[in-house]
Design a protein that fits this description.
The structure holds 2 protein chains of 2 kinds.
Chain A: H1 3-19, H2 35-46, H3 49-66, E1 68-69, E2 77-78, H4 82-97, H5 106-132, H6 142-169, H7 171-174
Chain B: H1 10-26, H2 29-32, H3 39-60, H4 71-105, E1 116-127, E2 132-136, E3 148-151, E4 157-164, E5 168-173, E6 183-189, H5 194-198, E7 207-213, E8 219-221, E9 224-225, E10 239-242, E11 255-264, E12 271-277, E13 288-294
């Protein structure tokens, strides 16, 4: 995988997360799509595992830095690692599943983007809630957050209908040859 | 024999990374607070792309404005709000000055003056998970936690800065239930109408209430006893102003909103509950704001 190209795309994805995501939010809710999750799913779908997992960690760490958590002192803090671990788990899941899927089919990236977002957020929210049991951080209504993020997972999958085919056309930029063998192929 | 200089395998590296991330994610905040200091450089690295996308975001979903047909009425109402606030602030200052004179006569040292510097700013976006609105202007501009944000086109209080980076600040909205403390002291003054213009003293009548934010973008009051309350104040359209000693002096008498509904409490006869809605567009989408930075030169502006 070409790491320079990945860095550029990760940078764009993070700029989207922080600068544009709320413009696509559904009404005044917090349900909105995540370009970063589509990128994680795409890289996990095509890159060798030795590249897919570190790439997921990088995106997860960037998401951690962009997401502040409240404390009683009113000064929000960064909880590093929760999205990174979530992305790592999601990426590993995609790497495991990709052998059974038609990777060139747009539906594959759509489904996997949704799965990636859902898994990442489940892990991230669960870790945050667990930490709040003994730490000063404040987590308001984890169930509502989870519901909102699962809604965002569906929205992310919908966005992948547009972004997925575009990324598939840029495989050569990333240096993905598509030669990784899939055990589920058409004759 | 195994070479001791052999580099670790990818699986080992991954295991070590995973362990480190687990420790960072689960260790208590007092051990991991230092991580937050790296957020600034990450934000700076992402900033160029973020600025472009924010501009596109504003084009796609512009900050909400009131309809053009209501402009004249809205402008007049805002001007009246300004004058009312200035009047209340002057009255308060007058009262405080009298107390200072009394203290000086009694030999008490004169307290240090508290001013506020105004800094114009623009909304950058909203952090959906924390509900914090990001605005331009950070620690390098002198913005500190506790700075209050007010809509640029009115006297509507937006919220309070809870965190600052080098170039940006995070604002907690007054309508956010996560605001600490979550009870906001306020005064309710009569609705602004023709009567209040004819009878300027009428605006001096006020009722003190405590408000709590809900998830619906409005604030509701704690139950208020209706006995002994002046007439014509606790009615829909009444103006609600901040009056809370836990908020900075610079925030006092800014508008929290207008009373939307007055509800009798069937289980508590003789008590009522007010619902207060901020004026203008949804607070999280207000584009232009003024930050009132405490401790600065009152004449300064951004």
């Amino acid at each position: 995988m070409n790491w320079i190209v990945f860095t550029i795309f990760a940078w764009i994805a993070m700029a989207f997360e922080t600068g544009f995501r709320d413009a696509l939010a559904l009404g005044s809710s917090s349900i909105s799509p995540s370009l970063a999750m589509i990128l994680v799913a795409y890289v996990a779908l095509w890159a060798p595992i030795r590249h897919a997992l570190p790439a997921a960690i990088v995106v997860g760490l960037l998401l951690d830095f962009g997401d502040l958590v409240r404390t009683p002192g009113a000064e929000p803090v960064v909880v590093l690692g929760r999205h990174a671990i979530g992305c790592l788990l999601a990426s590993y899941t995609v790497v495991t599943l990709r052998g059974m899927m038609f990777r060139r089919n747009v539906v594959t990236i759509v489904v996997l983007a949704g799965v990636t977002m859902a898994l990442t957020q489940i892990v991230a929210i669960a870790m945050l809630k667990f930490r709040s049991l003994y730490d000063v951080i404040i987590v308001d209504d984890a169930a509502a957050q989870l519901g909102s993020q699962l809604g965002s997972a569906i929205y992310t999958a919908a966005l992948a209908f547009i972004v997925g085919p575009l990324l598939n056309r840029m495989k050569w930029l990333f240096g993905f040859t598509g030669s990784a063998r899939s055990s589920f192929r058409m004759p | 024999m195994r070479n001791s200089r052999q580099s670790p395998s990818p699986a080992t590296l991954l295991g070590v990374t995973l362990l480190t991330l687990l420790v960072l994610a689960l260790a208590p905040t007092r051990f991991t607070r230092w991580v937050t200091s790296f957020r600034g450089p990450v934000e700076v690295a992402i900033a160029p792309g973020k600025v472009v996308l924010e501009k596109a975001s504003r084009v796609l979903r512009p900050p909400m404005v009131a309809p053009e047909v209501q402009r004249d009425e809205r402008e007049l109402r805002e001007q009246f709000d300004d004058l009312l606030r200035l009047h209340l602030q002057a009255a308060r200052e007058n009262r405080e000055l009298r107390e200072v004179i009394r203290s000086l006569q009694a030999g008490t040292p004169y307290p240090a003056s508290v001013g506020a510097r105004r800094l114009s700013t623009q909304r950058q976006g909203i952090n959906l998970s924390t509900g914090l609105v990001q605005v331009r202007g950070g620690s390098r501009d002198g913005v500190v936690p506790g700075t209050i944000a007010v809509a640029a086109s009115s006297q509507q209080l937006i919220g309070q800065v809870v965190a600052t980076d080098l170039a940006t600040s995070s604002i907690r909205l007054i309508t956010d239930p996560r605001m600490q403390p979550n009870l906001i002291g306020a005064i309710v003054t009569p609705p602004i109408d023709e009567d209040s213009l004819r009878e300027p003293d009428r605006s001096a009548v006020q009722v003190t209430v405590e408000l709590r934010a809900t998830d619906d973008g409005v604030l509701v009051s704690e139950p208020i006893g209706s006995v002994g309350k002046p007439e014509g104040v606790l009615v829909p359209g009444a103006v609600v102003l901040l009056r809370d000693p836990t908020w900075p002096d610079t925030a006092q008498f800014f508008t929290i909103g207008l009373v939307e509904t007055v509800e009798e409490l069937p289980r508590n006869p003789g008590f009522m509950r007010l619902t207060v809605r901020p004026t203008g567009p949804e607070l999280g989408r207000v584009g232009s704001m003024i930050l009132h930075i405490p401790g600065g030169d009152p004449e300064g502006s951004g």
